[in-house]
Design goal:
alpha/beta; six-stranded parallel beta sheet; 559 residues; binds magnesium ion; binds thiamine diphosphate; 21 helices
């Protein structure tokens, strides 16, 4: 049996035929036909999550792990608006989501009916495309039209690059009718044009060989072993400089994987020595503000960006060319065509990296209990094979200071860097993953998204670490807030809340630490817990954290 609303019956059929399985449904009555059509259908795994904001981030977490499109479905009105933060994140990070919003029929919009807003194109600025299904499928031509829309919408969630797509679905009452399945729709797949990358490869090789100083910067991306080995050769044998971040999920001895440590020590007199001639970039967002500033002040002569969708990402205001290609294919073809670059340029970066790394270790030996010390402990003690979810604000930034560790897969909501869905996203990834999934979040980020715990799908492989420094610790480090009278009240939003009762309310086991000597024991107990999700709250002193980090960068500079 399915819904007697033919538009959604058709959608559910195509959803399964196109190989999709996961849908998260939030409660409501306008979306009853979606529930009826999807749940109980062979091949569909339907989850129920109440809070739409959290549900959409949970879906994003699932999709970032599996690479498969995940659908979310909600009722009409403000429910749909609550999907918006996760849509924006998915759009800017290229995560495949299919957003289904139930709506009233067009004749009842703006006529005083309840729970009704203008939903068509509601996410228009941050989705790939928005569609609306016909209300009634009265004849074959409307059926074909709906079939076309659904095929196209699902294809667009994956091609040419993944992202979110919206389908608004108007329903006329009554909403709860059922009928036997009647449709066996036709699947239309996206034909990848498989464009020839050769001409692009020759152009890039020609540029490479023209410049002695070649720098590659990688933004956020998933782990990719083949790409990783190609980049290793480009760096180790061809002497390019590669700047990567933990969120780039790339690992190599000679990669400059702690950008801020190195860049913060480059002074104006020597900047020209570190400045690239040719800059090649690919991947998503770059976390480091310092490298953006460095390259704006000391720009490359040419910047070439590689993007499968051909996006113009002119971060450094020097973009010369966009190569519409897959970086892996491009680098594979490029390797045999490029010469080794200047040894001097390579060495200057490598030397600086070793100096600052030694300096970091010295500094860590002498500091007291603080966020930096806690991160040092955590990053050195988390088990192998961990999916490490880094909260926005300082967790993702602290991780950069320690470089990339091959034992972790790093995740972070860096598409738009919100603190509003980190817990839900990590929980979604843990749900579809067999590994240990550890989220390190700030306190405000945790309290903000604590509805992520209002969820029946938290598994024991999901562990949360809350670094509770009494507010938004980041505002102590960035220039500006401390020069105003509002640092504590309006920037940090200082509080003395504790996560204990929230964790307990949702059946999450709780541990707390507020001094260095407690850290090891509680951390070990936290990691050993195998039966239930668990939360470790680490209280740190806000003022001290600020001093320790600012002093860290001063200390590095004295190399
Ligand atoms: C949805 C959203 N609102 C506001 C911000 C701005 N913001 C960035 S960091 C931050 C403070 C986060 O505090 P916390 O989670 O405790 O992390 P800490 O800075 O202490 O590491 C805020 C409010 C944001 N990134 N996202
Ligand atoms: Mg905080």
């Amino acid at each position: 049996m399915t819904s007697d609303k033919k538009n959604v019956h058709l959608l559910a059929e195509l959803f399964v035929k196109k190989g999709l399985s996961d849908i998260i449904i939030s409660p409501g009555s306008r979306n009853a036909p979606i529930m009826i059509a999807f749940t109980g259908k062979p091949g569909v795994r339907a989850l129920s999550i109440v809070d739409e904001r959290s549900a959409a981030f949970f879906a994003l977490g699932m999709a970032q792990q599996t690479g498969k499109t995940v659908a979310v479905a909600c009722t009409s009105g403000s429910a749909a608006l609550n999907y918006a933060p996760a849509m924006a994140e998915a759009y800017y990070r290229k995560v495949p989501l299919l957003v289904l919003t139930a709506d009233r029929p067009p004749e009842l919009i703006d006529r005083g009916y309840g729970q009704t807003i203008r939903q068509r194109d509601v996410y228009r600025n941050y989705i790939k495309t928005g569609f609306e299904l016909p209300v009634e499928i009265k004849d074959d031509s409307i059926l074909k039209e709906a079939e076309k829309i659904i095929n196209e919408a699902i294809n667009l969630t994956q091609f040419p690059e993944p992202g979110p797509v919206h389908i608004n679905i108007p329903f006329r009452e009554p909403l709860y009718g059922t009928m036997q399945e009647i449709f066996d729709p036709e699947v239309k797949d996206f034909e990848d044009s498989n464009e020839d990358v050769q001409p692009l490869v020759f152009r890039l090789a020609e540029a490479w060989n023209r410049y002695e100083k070649v720098m590659i910067i990688t933004g956020q991306q998933n782990r990719n072993d083949k790409l990783n080995s190609l980049l290793k050769v480009l760096v180790e044998q061809k002497k390019a400089i590669l700047l990567s971040e933990t969120t780039s999920n790339l690992y190599g001895e000679a990669f400059i994987d702690c950008i801020d440590n190195v860049v913060s020590t480059i002074n104006t007199e020597e900047a020209a020595n570190f400045q690239p001639g040719l800059l090649i970039t690919f991947g998503g967002q770059v976390v480091s503000k310092m490298v953006k500033k460095f390259l704006r002040d000391h720009p490359p002569e040419e910047h070439w960006h590689i993007s499968p969708a051909g996006e113009e990402m002119d971060t450094y205001f020097k973009l010369r060319k966009v190569l519409k290609a897959n970086p892996e294919l491009l680098f594979e073809e490029l390797l045999p065509l490029v010469d080794e670059r200047q040894d001097e340029y390579f060495t200057i970066w490598q030397k600086r990296k070793s100096l600052v790394t030694a300096r970091r270790e010295k500094y860590l030996e002498k500091i007291g209990y603080s966020d930096l010390q806690v991160f040092d402990f955590l990053l050195n003690n988390l088990p192998e094979e961990t999916n490490l979810h880094l909260g926005n604000s300082t967790p993702v930034r602290y991780s950069q200071l320690f470089g990339s560790n091959e034992k972790f897969n790093y995740f972070s909501n860096r598409g738009v860097s919100g603190i509003d869905g980190q817990l839900s996203t990590a929980a979604g990834t843990a749900f579809v993953s067999d590994r240990l999934n550890v989220l390190i979040t700030g306190d405000l980020g945790f309290f903000y998204d604590s509805n992520g715990l209002m969820n029946k799908y938290l598994k024991p492989n999901f562990k949360i670490i809350v670094i509770n420094n009494g507010g938004g610790g980041i505002f102590r480090f960035i220039d500006g807030p401390s020069t105003t009278d509002h640092l504590e009240e309006f920037f940090e939003a200082r509080h003395s809340w504790k996560a204990k009762k929230i964790a307990e309310a949702f059946g999450v086991k709780y541990f707390a630490v507020s001094e260095k000597h407690q850290l090891k024991n509680h951390f070990d107990a936290f990691i050993s817990e195998k039966e239930t999700p668990v939360l470790l709250e680490i209280f740190t002193p806000p003022e001290k954290n600020g001093e320790v980090l600012l002093d860290y960068f001063r200390y590095l500079k004295k190399i």
